[in-house]
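Researcher: Go.
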Amino acid sequence: MGCAQRRPSGDNGSRDGNPDRELLQFNVRLAKSRQALADTNRIERKAFREHARLENAVGAYTRELSALLDQRGFTSGVTLNPIPEGGEAVLIVQLSDLHFNERVELPSNRYDFSVAAARLAKLAARVRQLGRCFGARKVVVACLGDFLNSDRRLDELLSNATNRSKATLLAVDILRAFLLDLRSELAVEVYGITGNESRVNRELGWSDALATDSYDLMIYEILRRGFAGSSGISFCGFRANELLFEVLGRTFLCLHGHQIGSNLQKSVQEIAGKYAAQGITVDYTLFGHLHATAIGDYHARNASLVGSNAYAEAGLNFCSKAAQNVHIVTASGIDGMKVDLQDTTGINPYPFAAEWEAYCPKSERKLHNPSVVFQVVV
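Model: Structure:
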């Protein structure tokens, strides 16, 4: 009789009740694969939901804006005067931090669309006065961002689509009157960049695609298309974050200002050094953001059109005045000045469609400390 042969341990173990090792490993791999597929599908579905919500919000915004534009053709009936003869001077208006849809009710300051329209009318009157004094025939309007406050949560953007579209069109309505006021005596060139507050998304973007997802671009484009073909009003370019333009052989750099550090002079020179490495000499840098005027030898920071608000005064112990900067550029140099716009006594505001008025009391909300819950995900 032959001897019984011992079965290898890796053979089928069903007789002694032990699970097959290879089958167990295969089942584990299959389960992991199924879980990975489920996780991928869950992430993709979530990404689609977020994208769909944004598409719906933007769609609602666009429909509301288109409806309001159809109701009011802001270029109809416009007669432009001939551009007068002038000397070699060119004026530059820094236009930044207008925050049209912010409302301020303080003992020291009040701000709404009507006040904004009056302050811009006062600014245009001073620009025209300077134009006559220096014999200028052209003004460059440098739009430096933050023309509108925005809600950056998707559900708020969707539910407030009507208010956002009306605020955008109100801004366009007032700026249209401002540009026409300047054009009554001067040729007008307009440049623009994005700010940080007017972005649509919650995240602050630096790429062109993300940074130009902004109400600043929306307002600029509506004005550009509205004035298309108009004699003496030219929209010369819009960029995200930074833009260069040239006046009488001098190069000006436009920033919003949120990329500038606490050491203002050092930061400005570092940014100019970046362009110097590309062979571009920046003669003067224009920016805003901090709502306080600071005019130096190589830069000028703009204040805001708003002036002090509740957050600045009660939260930061910081007071400011409504102002914008104007520069006179000649062959001999650049002269910068602040135009104080705080007091508009005796100034008639530009007319606008008051029934579209909508407010966003953002400055008061900043005073409340939010409670944040951090969820740690491993």
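Model: Residues 21-71 form the longest helix (51 residues).
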